[in-house]
Amino acid sequence: MAFITANWNPLGEAFYRKIELYEMGWSLRDGLKDCLVAAAPYGGPIALLRQPQRPSSSARPQLEIYSSSGTNMASFPWKSGPVRQLGWTVCDDLLCIQEDGTVLIYDLFGAFKRHFSMGNEVVQNQMLEAKVFHSPYGTGVAIVTGASRFTLATNIDDLKLRRLPEVPGLQGAPSCWAVLTQDRQTKVLLANGADLYILDNTSCTPVTPPGLSPQACSIVNMAVSFSYKYLALFTDSGHLWMGSANLKDKLSEVDTKVRTPPKQMVWCRRPKSQQPSVVIMWDRLLLVAGECTDTIQYTLDEESVCVAELDGVRIVGGSRHELLQEVPSACQDIFKIASMAPGALLLEAHKEYDKSSQKADEYLREIKEQSVLGEAVRQCVEAAGYEHEPETQKTLLRAASFGKCFLSNYPPEPFVSMCRDLKVLNAVRDYTVGIPLTHTQYKQMTVQVLIDRLVYRKLYPLAIEICRYLKTPEYQGVSRVLKHWACCAFCQTGVNFLDDMGPIMSGENQTLHSTVRTSYQRSMVTYLKNEMNRGDFFMTLRNQPVALSLYRQFCKHQEQDTLKDLFNQDDDHQELGNFYVKASYKEKKLEARLSLLQSAVDEYNKAKNEFAAKATEEEMKLLRFQRRLDEEKGEALLGLSLQETLHALLTSNFHKQAEQLYRDFRVPDKRYWWLKLTALAEKDDWEEMEKFAKSKKSPIGYLPFVEVCVKQHNKYEAKKYVSKVTPEQKVKAHLAIGDLEGAAEAAIDRRSEGEISTVLSRCSPTTDRALLERLNRARSTASKK
């Protein structure tokens, strides 16, 4: 913030600044030398036609397309005819104009779209020069042929060639020329030596700029402003004339003291500015001239190209990309040294407030006394929009927020709108996106056009995030983006478009990427499902694993029948079997359930999954058994698991049926004994439990009998089984029923130090003193051995 004015240069009553937008990411050995360059306005892409480093009959030029940050978007050898001019359409399509008048159109990624010709005369006489221009009608192309005739196409999307009248005395190309749009007509302004002519559809009219220096013998360069309202002429005497494009008014004339014809000349005029200025470029010099006699000069250390913008000039070099512009009045008022403007005072007040200084109150009092606090807030908000550095933006917006606290009726909309605008702008300015829009350009372009540009660059996630952030209506925002995404995806066969969502969002958007990705993919699949016929949709999903997975998840919850069709199409018998099993659980009628399970068995057999087929057959067998018992005994068993069925039978005293189920389904002995034991304990059937224990040797031992009895608070019954417990479990059994003497006897007999210690931990020093002494002696004896 302290050095924010360090790069300001005064020119008359205005200041100009040069801001670095990017360090270019491209690797150009010789920079822009020997390159034909075209950069699209509004922070658009850059096209380079590079000549081969070692000229030979087989060497071809290389056409390369980059974002404004130097990120490569396309590169391919040029195999067509010699190119005279490159240019960009309003839709960011690249025009390559060949010397035979053929115009080839490519998209941002180097894909050929179409071509057209500028007429037969060009084929015969060749083309000398060409210009690409933008008008209210669209993108146009103007050329001058070897016969010194001009041909014009106002809108290449509705091609109508106009051959303009002949220029008297013109041989070859004019010394300079430009395209004008006036009174809803497109005209050509040209210079032949010191003479100026305007060509329209029917006539060639000589014109004279008012007040042009008499020292001029020839006009060597001209430039029309971005809005076509102003014209600049550079003469061989080094004078720069500036005036209206209709040549009725003169704004100023400056002696640049440089007589060499410039390489480029572009207007640098901010909307609503009263300061006319033109940027002139030579090999190593950049000069800014305005109304006053002074100029601003910048030294260029590399080959560069100027790109006219709505509110400034972009300067593209081999290593950096900069923006030259007049400093907006709001920024001048706030940051100019010793400024007493309301915004400057409010900014200082906020700085002092952050320092907890009393000076903050003094500044605020001064603003309030002048009744300009609202103006101060407005200036800070407006200035934030003109700044490129996020930290400077935040500082100004915090100052504005601070000032709003002392206003009772300040409308919040301008502040909120600016915060939203800057969040969007900072996202698209990021190096990975490479669209260095200014706030002025953004407002002129509109959000819809910005979304279109992001879509055209295939930055779909960022486009959708911006639509959602700005709450754009669905039909204008997310749905429209997804539609373009789908069209692009199906034009690229073999491309997994759902996996083509790389980490293109920057900053805070990057953290959202993993979260929103699945949402985008799901929306995309839904859109395609609605747009395509069923067969094509299924065939497409087969080649898209991510899409197929997402659609299966959707069908599991929404469209079960569609899921079955997917499995059938893929002959996925395993998944079909799983599908039938899951579907069977939703059927209330047993016959329908059995039918589905039989279908599952058939599919599992086709999948050669013997285990799943056998398990499903046993499930069918269990269901039939349950139905028979329900009919005979009135028990509600249908749908229970095997274990639940056994438990229900045992607790209902249907021991015979439980035994049959145990044998038929080969239930492991240990599991069955545990089930029967717990069921008998739960119903307090101690007599049946005793019979069960004596029926045969227990496969689970007898400690479980003791434990279930104790769990049911019946130590009397538990004591019956202690004698049957194995020696290894005697101590645990005696302790379970609270028999310390028995536990001690068993531990001493086994001479187990660990078991003796366990019994000791249960003894009380007051009531079990004798037992404690006996156990301690036994432990000492056991430890010695």
TrEMBL record:
Q: Give the CC-aspect GO terms.
A: CORVET complex; HOPS complex; late endosome membrane; lysosomal membrane
Provide the membrane topology annotation.
Answer: Peripheral membrane protein
- According to the UniProt entry, the coiled-coil residues are 587-635
One GO BP annotation is: endosomal transport
Q: Which residues form the Vps16 N-terminal domain?
A: 5-416
Report the locations given in the UniProt record. Late endosome membrane; Lysosome membrane
Name all Vps16 C-terminal domain ranges: 523-779
Under InterPro entries, the record lists: VPS16 (IPR016534), Vps16_C (IPR006925), Vps16_C_sf (IPR038132), Vps16_N (IPR006926)
- Do the record's keywords include Acetylation? no
**Keyword terms:** Coiled coil, Endosome, Lysosome, Membrane, Protein transport, Transport
The molecular function terms in GO held by this entry are: actin binding
Ranges annotated as spanning the membrane: none
The entry's function note states: Plays a role in vesicle-mediated protein trafficking to lysosomal compartments including the endocytic membrane transport and autophagic pathways. Believed to act as a core component of the putative HOPS and CORVET endosomal tethering complexes.
Q: Can you tell me which family this protein belongs to? A: Belongs to the VPS16 family.
Give the record's subunit note: Core component of at least two putative endosomal tethering complexes, the homotypic fusion and vacuole protein sorting (HOPS) complex and the class C core vacuole/endosome tethering (CORVET) complex. Their common core is composed of the class C Vps proteins VPS11, VPS16, VPS18 and VPS33A, which in HOPS further associates with VPS39 and VPS41 and in CORVET with VPS8 and TGFBRAP1. Interacts with RAB5C. Interacts with STX17, MON1B. Associates with adapter protein complex 3 (AP-3) and clathrin:AP-3 complexes.
| Protein's recorded name | Vacuolar protein sorting-associated protein 16 homolog
| Taxonomic source organism | Hucho hucho
Q: What is the lineage of its organism?
A: Eukaryota, Metazoa, Chordata, Craniata, Vertebrata
